[in-house]
Each structure stands twice: as structure tokens, then as C-alpha cells.
Amino acid sequence: MAHLESRKHISPASGFPITLHPNFNPKIKDHVPPEPFRGLVNPPIDRAFFADPEKKALFSVAKPVDLTESLGTVLENVQLSQLNEQQLDELALLVTERGVVFFRDQDLTTEKQVELFQHYGDLDKHPAQKFVNIHGSREDHRELLNYTPWPSGEFHADTSFEINPPSYSLLRMEEHPDVGGDTAWVSQYGLYDALSDAYKKFLDGLHAVHTSRLQYDTILDLWNVGPNRPPIDTHHPAVRTHPVTGLKALNVNTGFVTGFAELKKLESDKLLDFLAHHIHSADDHYVRWKWTVGSVAMWDNRCTVHRVIPGRYKGNRRGVRTTVFGEKPYLDPASESRESASYAKERKVMLDSRSSISVINVGF
């Protein structure tokens, strides 16, 4: 962290760096983004809508192994590079249902990864880079918060502050240490399920304030790169409806959400405190992935949040991430939680079964 501007200004009283407001940090205040503000886009139809619900083509070449009840599936004995369009569509559907899908020992190159992911839509350009090289961090993210405003070690959904946040993301690991640098995901379907009915109703009526301003300031100072676009603030529903599954998912993350439009400041702060605890304590809706070189994760930002687990690991960590534009988040009041939809489905199966038994008994 020696290159941080704050590190150059030491308090004579404490001997520690003086935190500089972005307006007084020349790296931040003097930066002029080369690209204009990006407005609403209309992404193509989600490829999951073209999938066979039973995923017969995909499962004919890959063995699914669920890692937890709530989210996370490994597909074994398959190369992503060899999947045809139908299988890729079914993979998208599986990702919308399971949140994140993992692969080991893949032969993808960056060129093939880009080509493959263009099947899912228009590639989204990160505000700082075209294709994001993921390195992880050995810094103490708790200490970094003294000098940078963005909580870089927190759970987030990729660039959720955009008008059109990404739908799918894919990360392929090219270098990785033997120990450390894991990534954790939490299901936002599950986070919504775990709330009381009263809290669900409360959150259904709120808009979360997503902002890139904290990241914008931080990456200029910490990453030494200039964001391509000006910072943006958006108000998205605090609970969103997934367009493919039709299920409600919490749409709040600790990385980019700073408050709630309908609430006063102290009310927002208290709610954010609770939801930070809610996300970090969701062990029953959590999966942690141990990376190896050649492993791949594909996830849905509309129904998960994720974070790299910070640590003091040794060795390089480098991966390539691609993402595609999603739809503008919305809430359909008629949509259901995953738990409610599952209960309704199980009840229907039970009632259908009873009806069949009754018909058989009448026949006898």
C-alpha cells in the first residue's frame, strides 16, 4: 500500500497516514474519464430461455455434483470448449438455478473464452478494464478502509451500480497459489428466503442505492489505473425478480450499496448493518471454491454475491473474467421466493399423487 496517496502524508501526532478526501487527492480529483456516461442498453434474450428444462443435452456429457443444498454445482468430465449451443443454453439455465457452476482442468484460452461467452450476449466492459484480470489481494482489507472508501474485500455482485448490471460472469484461473485466494458465493435467493415475512414485505418496497463512486476513487489510488467512465449512482429494487426463474432475490450487496432511497440516513445505516450481518452469517446459503490452474466458475450476478477471501498466500493469482449485460433490475410483485415456489411445487406433486391413488381406488 506504499503507493497510496495517504501514505505520503503522515500525521506528526500519531505517526500514521492522514486520510485524504478524494477532492484533495490529486490522483482522483484530476482524473478525466475518456469515455462518456453509459445509458440504458437492451440486451438480447437470455439464452436460458432456449434451454431444455431437463438439461438432457448438457447432462449427457457432464456429471453434475451439487456442493450445497442452496447453491454451487460442479460439472465433471466435460470441457467447456466442446459444448454446443444447446448445451451452452442448458448451462445458462443451470447457472440461474444453482447460482454458480464450477469446472476443473479446462483447456480454454482467453480467445476461446471470449468467443464462448459471446454466446450469452454482449460483453460488458468494466469501468476500469476491457476484460478484467483478477489478481486478488494480500493486503489487509480492514486496514485499507482507513485510506480508501471502497470496501474491496466485501461481498458484491459485479458492477451492480450499472443501469444494466451484468447477468452472467465467467472467471478462468491461469495462475494460482496452492493455498489461499478462494472465492465465496452466497445465494441471494437464499438470503431472501431466510428473512421473516415482515422483513420481506418491508424490503419489497425499497430501492437500494448502488454507487460506483467509492470504487472509482479507490481504484485510481489503489490500482493506479484510471476508470474509463464517470462514476454512476443508480436506484435498483432492493428485491428483484429473476427473469428466467421468476424467483425473488435480495438485491443488496455490501460492496456497492450505500443506502435505501426511501429511508432516512440512520435508518439506512441500521438496515445496511443488519444485511451485512445477514450476508456474512448465511452459512446455509454459502459455498467456498478452492481454485486450481485451469478451473472455471460461471455465476449469475442476479441471484448471488461473491468475494475473494483475503489472505497472506504466497504465489501469483491471476484469472480472466468475462461478463455480459443483463436486463435493468425489476420487481414483479406477483413473483415468489424460492422457498415458497418449492413448497408450492412439492404440494402440487403430493396432491397429484393423492388424486392418482384415488382414481386407482375407485377403479378397484
Automatic annotation (TrEMBL):
The keyword GTP-binding does not apply. Signal peptide: none annotated. GO terms for cellular component: cytoplasm. Keywords: Dioxygenase, Iron, Metal-binding, Oxidoreductase. Pfam families: TauD. Its cofactor is Fe(2+). GO terms for molecular function: 2-oxoglutarate-dependent dioxygenase activity; metal ion binding. Residues 67-322 form the TauD/TfdA-like domain. Belongs to the TfdA dioxygenase family. This is Alpha-ketoglutarate-dependent sulfonate dioxygenase.
